[in-house]
Amino acid sequence: MAKKSFYGRGKLLLTGEYAVVRGAKAIAIPTGQGQRLTLSTGRGSDIKWKSKTADGKVWFDAKISLFDFSPLKTSDPEVAERLGSILEAAVRLNSDFLSTWKGIKVETELEFPREWGWGSSSSLVYGIAQWADVDPYDLYTATFGGSGYDIACAGSDEPILFKKVSDDMVDLRPIDMSEAVSNHLHFVYSGKKAQSSSALDYISENEMSPDWLDSVSELSQELSEAQSITTWLKGIESHNALLSEYLKEESPQAHFRDFSGAIKSLGAWGGDFYLAATPESPEYVQDYFQEKGFSHVLSYEQVAVSCQPQKAGQ
Question: Is 150 helix (H, G, I), strand (E, B) or coil?
């Protein structure tokens, strides 16, 4: 086998957290950093898998049976079992996948820190779907579930307005993010982790009214077309109020009352990243959050605008 390479981008959900699963419109951006999956010929008739972090360190390795995708040897049984289930699901979608019983070496490498929650799972599923020649949404539905916005980001080179229309249909529309907006958006790593599974459990137990979902969609639509940061400041405030009502939690803004702008959580509340929007200078944002102990503050350009298309084989 000639060496092959597949690539999927990371993701950040700017609006529509929780609601996107129930069909509300949401704004999402693919990150400039993603995950690469590289294949080469291996010995024997097993899959030898190695996963590396952004700094090149191996965080997971395994020898996986091509017969039943069980781990013959692994550094992490739980991760190996999850990986085996993805490969098995891919075979169910394409019976020709992994049917030759020839040994394969697989190496994955993240470009962003694993703890950032930028889509290590979704970018992996996207890469495996390319390898298996199956629909990435079908593979994601069969393994992780969720709205699929992160799969949409994995294959996109620009911001998107995303809507889950049905279990087997999504609506994607590219967004031309105005610099009058993007130059004033900043991403702050919270240092905490939120579990997507917990968010999905909450959604399954708590209904969302059609009117409430429509309100979230209208906000996402408005912000996707916004030409000023003022619109985003007002939109984030309204968005926080809607989600605070649904989650019965205090808005993230309450923890930053002295910030000159608007702040919201990205994805499940209580973890990963905040979005900070402000008309103030980047220096103001850096100083404000560093004084509060947040060491990773990224501009929109650092996260998304500097994206360069990546193609298989590069």
Answer: helix
- Please give the model's pTM, rounded to 2 decimal places: 0.91
Q: How far is CA 280 from CA 67, 183, 231, in A?
A: 58, 10, 15
Residue 88's region, left for phi above 0, alpha for psi from -120 to 50, else beta, is: alpha
Collapsing DSSP to helix, strand or coil, 265 comes out as strand
Q: Where do we find the tokens 């501009």?
A: 299
User: At 79, is the secondary structure helix, strand, or coil?
Assistant: helix
Identity of the residue numbered 196: S
**Of residues 52, 20, 25, the one with CA closest to residue 38:** 52
Calpha distance 241→235 (Å, rounded): 10
Spatial separation of the C-alpha atoms in residues 309 and 166, rounded to whole Å: 29
Q: How far is 146 from 121, CA to CA, in rounded Å? A: 12
Give the rounded percent of residues in the chain with a pLDDT score beyond 90: 81
**DSSP letters for 282-301:** HHHHHHHHHHTT---EEEHI
Residue 184 is which amino acid? H
Per residue in 90-143, pLDDT (tens digit) is 999 999 999 888 899 999 999 999 999 899 999 999 999 999 999 999 999 999
Q: In Å, how far are 6, 17, 87, 145, 193 from 84, measured between CA atoms?
A: 19, 29, 5, 16, 25
**Side chain identity at 188, as an amino acid letter?**
V
Residues facing 4 on adjacent strands: 39
Bridge-based pairing state of the strands 160-166 and 26-41: antiparallel
CA–CA distance, 148 with 197 (Å, rounded to integer): 14
Task: Read off the pLDDT band of 225 (50, 70, 90).
Answer: very high
- Report the C-alpha gap between 28 and 304 in whole angstroms: 10
Closest CA to 16 of 236, 297, 302: 236
